[in-house]
Structures are given as C-alpha cells and as structure tokens.
C-alpha cells in the first residue's frame, strides 16, 4: 500500500527511503532538506497513516510516498539508500532485507543488541557491496577535525572523562522504547553512553581498548533496562576513558580529554548548543604559582562556524561514500568498523553492569 | 634547642606552633599573617636550620622561635595550638604528643594511614578536650555556603562527578613524600582525591555512603603508590559520587553535582583560580527544543567575593572553635567527624584499587 506524490524523474540526487517514522528521523529530514544532493522518496511505517502524517509534518509531500510497511520502502526500485531509525532489536532483520535489495544503509545507533549482531550487520553490508554508516551526527560536525588538530598539543593522552545525562519525564519512563527490554534494551548506555564511547574512540585515534568495567551502583528500571551507568574503559598502555550516562538527572553533555601537556574540554559535544557555531576549549598544563597559592593554568577558546547543521553534514558524507560505491569502489569500511567497535563496548559495559561490575575483556 | 625572637607579652592572639616546615605550611602562614586573631610563635623541623630558614622565608622573625624538633614546639608553654603539616604516617604519634600537652590541632590531610588511625586521632583529641580540624581549606571559602544555598534548586540529588589531577615533574616523582610508601602512601588519592571526596560529602549533606569501588585501571608507581585512580561511591538511596584523581596529566579541578531539576558545576573548587573571587554555575534541567535539534538548557553564573583567602578563613574558623573550648565548651565534633569519614573513604578506595577493583563496604 502506497500513497502520496511519487518523484517521477531522476533528480540526480541520492534517493532515500526512510524505514520507521521515529522522532529522531524528523531531525534528520530537516537536515536532508538542506542538501542539494539527497531527496526522500519514500517513508515507511507499520501504519500508512503514520507514514503519511510524518510526510505531512516534515514537508516531504513533493517528493515522498508513504508506505504502510518497511518492506515496501526497501523494495521500492526508486530507493537507492535507506535511513533506518528503527529500534536496535529490529536492525539485523531489516538491514538484511536492505542488503537483499542492494540498498545502502544509514543505520540509527545503537546498531545491534549483541556483538554478534553488530558483526553480522557489518558483514552483510560488505557482502552486499552497500555502504554502512551509523547515525552518530556529531562525528560529521567540522568541530571533530578541530578536536583532532589540537590533540597533539595535549602531549601524551592519558585520560578521557565524559558525562551525558538528561532527565526523563513520566511518559518517557513508561512508554519509550529505550526503557523496554527487547528493542532498545541497552537503555541510557545504548542511547547516550554510545556517544561518550564514540568520542573517546575518536580522540584516542580509534585504538582498540582491552577491557571495561561498569562503575558501582548502576541503576536499572523494573524491566532491567539501564537508567544510569558509569564505566571505565582501559587501554593496553594504561590510558583510560570513563563515561557516566543516565536518564535520571538534569542535562550534562561534556567530555574532557587530558594529556601530559594539556586538556581539551567540550561541554556540548554531541548536540551543540548552537546550530551555527560549535565551541570547545584547550588548557595548558600549568598548576600553581606563587606560594602554592594561585592557579596559573591558561585556557583558550576555539570556535567552529557551520554552514550546515551536523545532521545535514552526516547525510552529505554518507552520500559521497555511496557515490564512490556507485562508481565502482568498495564500500568504505571505517564507518562500519567504528560502529561495530562502539557496539561491542556498549555490550561489554552492559555485561559488566549486569554482573556485579566485574571486569569484562574486550575482543575487538 | 631554640633560636629566634620569642614573643614575650600575651598578644591576645591564639598562639600557634608549626610542627613541620612543609611547603604547604608556607601558604598557610601567608594566610595566618592576614589575621589579627592568630600569631605563629614557634616553628619546629627535624633540623634547626630548616626551621630558621622557614621563619626567615615566611617573614615570621618578629614572633616565631625556631626549634630543631617537633617535640619542643609542642612542649613550648606559649604554644596553644599546633598546625601540623607532617606526612600522614607521623600523625598518630604527633597528635598524641599534642594531646598530652593539651594543644589544639589543625592537622594536614590525609589525617592517617588507616581507618583505625583516624579513629584514634579523633578519640585522642576528644579525650584531651582539644579541638581537631583538618587542613581542607576550600571548606572555609564562603563559596561553600553559596553551594549549599543553591542545592535545593537542583531537586533530588542523584550524582556527583569530580576530577582533580595535575602533572608531576621528575623531581616530584622521585622525591616527593606523596610518591613513597609509609608516609603519605595514599598518593594522589590521599592528596587530591581527598578533596573530591570531601566536596561530595559536603554537597550530599554529610550523609554516610555505603560502599566504594575503584575504577578499572588504577595506576601505581614502582613503590605501589597510587599515581592515578578513579572510584565510585554509592549511597543507600542509589545516589552515586565519582572521582578521578592523578598526578599524571594536566590540571583539572572540577566537580559537578546533578539533581532532577538542575546541575551545579565548579571548575576550580579546591584552589580558586583567583584569590578575591570564587565562581561556579548552576544550570536548569532543560534539554532539547525544536525538532529535537537544539539544546535549551540555561546556565547561571555565581560569584563570591573574598576579603581573605580561604586558607586565612580556615585559621579564623579554627581559632573561633578553640576560643569556645577555652571558654569551657566541649570541642566541636563535626570537623573531626568529617575528617574521619573522608579518611575512611580514602582507605576503602585504596583497598579496592589494590584488590582488583572489588566493591568495598564502608562502615562509617
């Protein structure tokens, strides 16, 4: 069953189908609409009405058809790539269908419920010769390049700390998929801990850590889903990264990476406070001056101006990779690899939190 | 053996003896000299020359005599109170002597090497009817009252996070007492982790936590002294506090306390960046606005102006408590109690770090 105004002529744009009419997709559609290189030609939901309402609300009527199933979007021959904001528990099944139809996949995070599921998703996409990327928007903010360019000034990196929390309301705690077993059962860890882990991996140059341990006192809801958890991730050389994430208190969204010569701090690393400008600071390694009395550390502010919001930059980057595959290159594997690495760390922390915060070895 | 210019007439000021000519004592002497209510009449070191040099360097010649032993300072009948910046491993012994002579004790932190030592110190001071307080200066910054007055706006408190690190140099790692077993063998945990724990206890209203667990990957030097450690402290109601402290990377000195309605952040909580002005921020619990796109959290800055540096405020507060004891009141036990509580948490985290980061129950 389909309804709406199909896009008839080839626009030269990458034609996306959206599989699942989740709230996060609205933000991404807003980003896609700012790009000349993509268009949304199909939106599928379990209910045709919901898909049509999504198209209406997001202003996609000129290009997108509504479908009452995910399958029809994936099978639509006009669709070249799918954006899949489904709960993680559905990803293996629906990525498989997308691969069967040769559709490139921009997949919401967390990407899977298990390490094996993450591996399977990456392997299916590689075998089907389709590009895989997860929906971690902040990675496409040009601020990330600025982080990377300032890292050498920090000396030898030693420690990463991060905290990403926000306060859920009654409706969230009762109804949201991130509070329920089976679909997005990694709770706060899969939803926002994911970003802390990803930032750490990026700042530590994608080096593979060796083990994780959840911090004492993880909080589960009655269904056994994490509502707050901290964890430390350990590297072979002794470097550590820690995160603290939860749905149980007011908003925090910060990381700090520290080296022998300086620190870098960003207090809105995932969702920038402003759309057109992203900031962070670096500080030197000074400590005390006269009579051990005063702090003498100097801090410098950095600012990056954005012409497009980071979610638009994500679809632009994905589209460029897809164009390369369409031109005959193999799919870029970095994005798939970091999705899998992030997911495996999420799963290991979950395992530790469920087992008295024992140390869990990683096999990345 | 004594040398220097004794203070002959009773000045009406509380007369201090300094037991140990440590670097930290120079900062405190600078603070004491800003006060009308105290004077330093004796400085004792293991070497008379060192005590004399300390008096010379700190400009105490008009009032203070140099002694070549700790014992002589404590026994000096002019001395009413001792400030004791000795390594923690010497505290039980020298606090006992001070108590034997009925001298009030302002004791550097960490106060002891063991929970039993901390209890013994507190019990000795109580039995001798002398006031005990530890040298945690930031507690006497008027900013602490401002922290406390803003706490109710944060709603139900859920989580405290803190990080206090600075980068040691070669001389520090080779020679400092905080890198050696036996004297200040809790390393970074006793030195700067202490402050994180104290801030947490204060912000959580001196409630007693139930257990601690060191974070994965604590770093010990070759002598087995902690150079970096993280830990989480758990309360009965599920509240948690975490700290991350070390001598192995550039300076960080921040805490954040988060509740259901807001967060409070202070990025120089222990040693204020400026002597005359202390700052912190509070933020509300807003998260996202339009299309889940932008952060809408509002942050407010707070500022406290200081007429005296916090170390002077500490000696002023201590002197006021001593005057009450001299007037016949019992010594105030709150300060002793929080010293012991802080020390027991330090010792429990140390135990966890030395035992594969196992959970350690507290008995406070």
Automatic annotation (TrEMBL), chains A, B:
Name the Gene3D superfamilies on file. Answer: Dihydrodipicolinate Reductase, domain 2 (3.30.360.10), NAD(P)-binding Rossmann-like Domain (3.40.50.720)
Concerning Pfam families, the annotation shows:
GFO_IDH_MocA (PF01408), GFO_IDH_MocA_C3 (PF22725)
Alphabetical list of InterPro entries matching this protein: Gfo/Idh/MocA-like_OxRdtase_N (IPR000683), GFO_IDH_MocA-like_dom (IPR055170), NAD(P)-bd_dom_sf (IPR036291)
According to the lineage, what is the superkingdom?
A: Eukaryota
Which residue ranges does the record assign to the GFO/IDH/MocA-like oxidoreductase domain?
Answer: 154-264
- Molecular functions (GO terms): nucleotide binding
Q: Per the database record, which ranges form the Gfo/Idh/MocA-like oxidoreductase N-terminal domain?
A: 14-133
Name the PANTHER family on file: OS10G0403700 PROTEIN, PTHR46368
Family, per the entry? Belongs to the Gfo/Idh/MocA family.
Tell me the protein's name. Gfo/Idh/MocA-like oxidoreductase N-terminal domain-containing protein
**What is the organism of origin for this protein?**
Apatococcus lobatus
